[in-house]
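Per reviewer request, we include the raw input and output of the structure prediction for the construct analysed in the revised manuscript.
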Amino acid sequence: MSLLKAENIIKSYSKIGTDIPVLNSINITVNTGEILALIGPSGSGKSTLLNILGTLDLDFIGNLCIDGISISKDSDLDYIRSNKLGFVFQFHHLLPEFTIYENLLIPKMIAGLYSEDSFSDCIKMLDFIGLMNRKGHYPNEISGGEKQRIAVIRALVNKPCLVLADEPTGNLDRENSDLLLKLIVNLKLKYQQSFIIATHDHSILEIADRVLYLKDGTIKKKL
């Protein structure tokens, strides 16, 4: 069974009594251990689609199913977002008043998973990305590339089935971008983790299992 299945997704915005189409009959499936890239020019609908797939925008027409759960306004969205999905954005959104280790624990606490196992999970993830020596540092004491790698493992601490990333390399130089993409591949291989990545960065093509090209709200190519 697919982890995520979206069927005939249609999205429009209303402006001065006129409907402006954004997405037109989009169909997507994502399987376990798959990296799916969404590429396309600005205004093509990538971020809008990612918001719908991540249950952040429920004002759409069509069907969305995540890990066997049909998504609607009546769904337990807090549970789905905390336990089924992880999110990574262009900006890391680490909380500056907390240490790196504490930033990793916060999603556990929100999901009610604050325990000895939670401590162990966070330590293991830091060790996996080679940043154990940054555990007690604050976000302003580490580099931009390190912050973004922390943001990726923070999205994984609750062991979601799917991570959605919106321009995760957008603020990084080439070296740090390559390190982040290597981390994503390693997470896929070690944990069979699935990713949907919306991006302008065509280096994502090198690590993606499938690529969808969006233009004018429509999938133009499947690579």
